C-alpha cells in the first residue's frame, strides 16, 4: 500500500499565526487529498478537490463570490485526475472515493470519476444540495448511518468502508457540516487521519491551549453548522496530536504547513 499526498485545491496565500519567532513562512492554502494505492481495492481517494468541471466553468460551478474570496488556482494540472495520471496511474482504477464533506473544494473532483463508489455519512449526502453542480452527474453513493459503529482511538460510531478490504475508516467529526467525517487510513504500523475541515489551522490541535488563525477562524465561522459539536471532535484530535507515541498522524484539509510535512 502506498499513499500519495497531493494538493487539489491551491488557494489564496495565508500568513502563519504562530508569532514572529515561527519558522513557518506564508504559504498558499491547500486542498489536501490522498491517493491510496491498495492491494485489492484499486485506488482509493480521500477527498476529491476541485475538478476539471469546476476549472472549465468556475462561474457556473464554484460561483463568482466564492472564487473572489478564496482565489483558487484553477490549474488543470492540480485536479485529482491529472495528479493520478502524473503518478503513472490510471483514473479508471479509482474505484472508491471517501469524502470528508460535500463542499465544492472537496467534492468538485467527483465528476472526474463517475464510476467510483463515493463513501460518506448519510447526513452529509442529505445536506449535499448546496453543491448541486458538483453532484449533477449522479455519484454512486455508499452511505453510512451515524450512530452505532466501532470504537477507534477515542471515537465512537466509526465505520469501515464497504467493499474496501484495507483499513480505511469513516470517523464522525460532525459540526463543520452535519455529516462531516474524518478518514483514517492504516499505513504500515501507524494511521493517517485526514480531519477534513474539522479544523483549519494546526494551532487548534498541536498545543494544549488551542491557538486560532484570524483568517481561517473567519472561514470556519462562516460555514460551520454546529460549533460545539465540531470542537468536541477537535478536542479528541488534539489528544491524538499531543500523543506522538500513539501512532496516529493527524492533518486537516487546508493547512499548508501540515501539508508540507508530506509533500
Ligand atoms: Zn474546505
Automatic annotation (TrEMBL):
Record's keyword terms, sorted: Hydrolase, Metal-binding, Zinc
Sections of the chain in a coiled coil: none
A GO term for molecular function: metal ion binding
Metallo-beta-lactamase domain: residues covered: 30-254
Record-linked InterPro entries: MBL_superfamily_lactonases, Metallo-B-lactamas, RibonucZ/Hydroxyglut_hydro
UniProt family annotation: Belongs to the metallo-beta-lactamase superfamily.
PANTHER family, sorted: BLR3078 PROTEIN, QUORUM-QUENCHING LACTONASE YTNP-RELATED-RELATED
Name of the molecule in the record: MBL fold metallo-hydrolase
Taxonomic source organism: Actinomadura montaniterrae
Lineage: Bacteria, Bacillati, Actinomycetota, Actinomycetes, Streptosporangiales
Amino acid at each position: 500500500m502506498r499513499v500519495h499526498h497531493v494538493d487539489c485545491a491551491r488557494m489564496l496565500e495565508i500568513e502563519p499565526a504562530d508569532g514572529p519567532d515561527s519558522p513557518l513562512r506564508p504559504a498558499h492554502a491547500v486542498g489536501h487529498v490522498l491517493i491510496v494505492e491498495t492491494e485489492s481495492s484499486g485506488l482509493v481517494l480521500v477527498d476529491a478537490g476541485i475538478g476539471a468541471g469546476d476549472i472549465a466553468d468556475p462561474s457556473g460551478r464554484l460561483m463568482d463570490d466564492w472564487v473572489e474570496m478564496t482565489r483558487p488556482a484553477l490549474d488543470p494540472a492540480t485536479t485529482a485526475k491529472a495528479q493520478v495520471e502524473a503518478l503513472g496511474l490510471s483514473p479508471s482504477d479509482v474505484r472508491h472515493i471517501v469524502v470528508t464533506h460535500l463542499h465544492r473544494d472537496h467534492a468538485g473532483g467527483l465528476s472526474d470519476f463517475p464510476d467510483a463508489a463515493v463513501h460518506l455519512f448519510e447526513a452529509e449526502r442529505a445536506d449535499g444540495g448546496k453543491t448541486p453542480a458538483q453532484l449533477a452527474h449522479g455519484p454512486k453513493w455508499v452511505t453510512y448511518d451515524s450512530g452505532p459503529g466501532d470504537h477507534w482511538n477515542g471515537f465512537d460510531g466509526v465505520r469501515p468502508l464497504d467493499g474496501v478490504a484495507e483499513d480505511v475508516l469513516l470517523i464522525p467529526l460532525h459540526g463543520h457540516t452535519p455529516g462531516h467525517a474524518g478518514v483514517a487510513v492504516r499505513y504500515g504500523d501507524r494511521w493517517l487521519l485526514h480531519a477534513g475541515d474539522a479544523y483549519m489551522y494546526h494551532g487548534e490541535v498541536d498545543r494544549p491551549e488551542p491557538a486560532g488563525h484570524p483568517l481561517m477562524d473567519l472561514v470556519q465561522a462562516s460555514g460551520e453548522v454546529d460549533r460545539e459539536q465540531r470542537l468536541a471532535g477537535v478536542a479528541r484530535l488534539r489528544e491524538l496530536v499531543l500523543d506522538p507515541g500513539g501512532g496516529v498522524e493527524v492533518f486537516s484539509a487546508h493547512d499548508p504547513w501540515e501539508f508540507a510535512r508530506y509533500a
